[in-house]
Amino acid sequence: MAARPSRATSFSLSVIVASVVLGFLLTVQFRSTAARIPTREQGRLVTAEAMRRLEDEQRQLKERIGELRAQIADLQHTTDTGTPAGAVAADLDSLRLATGLVALHGPGVIVTLDDSTKPMGASDDANNFLIHDYELRDVVNALWLAGAEAISINGERLVTVSSLYCVGSTILVNDTRLSPPYEVRAIGDQAALEQAMQNPGNLAPFRSKVRLYGVQFRVTAHKDVTVPAYMGNLGVRYAQPTNKVIDQFQKLTPGGF
Q1: pTM of the entire structure?
Q2: Residues spanned by the domain of 29
Q3: Each residue of 3-23: pLDDT tens digit?
Q4: Could you tell me which residues come within 8 angstroms of residue 200 by beta carbon, excluding any fewer than 6 positions away?
């Protein structure tokens, strides 16, 4: 008759089995965690590559839009200026100029804003060392008030339907991602534009930030500043005439629309 294992032997076997199982589980968990790290990194790289590809596609599409608009303008100018079609072409030129679809050049200023290169302390807020969308808007609004005739930011022309806002730490202008330094080009009266940027009464919060945190702010006057044409969509998706406007139009045009 076989001898029964002692309690000590049974306990030892239980400990060994438990140790083996625990070691197996720890090994599986470690391998799973190690496998997830490169996957996350790979996902980040894939996202960055997709973003770069979409931005390249956006740039190419904008260039194509510019080429097609130039071709349309050339075709419109082939008509005799004395004909009704020629008069319409002249009106279209004026409208293109007013809506920002034509590149312009002339005297003006170039305003450069950039993040600070000053070292941050342990208790400093990183936001104080960066350029934000509202600061760009303040600069642009000051230039408009000073009589600027055309403005662009990093090659993006500002028109009536332009957008300028922040998503996370990224500034978007006309739905195009921009990176610092931000170069604001403005055409107009050089003296008035420069005075608006140098006046201590203007942009007071931003000037304080420049002084305290080293954010960069430069203004230079130029005899010839080029502002590119707007390459985005001018369509308004949601605006509709009110009933009052429709009634007034119908009174002026009995035949209706």
Answers
A1: 0.67
A2: 13-78
A3: 555 555 555 556 565 666 566
A4: 207
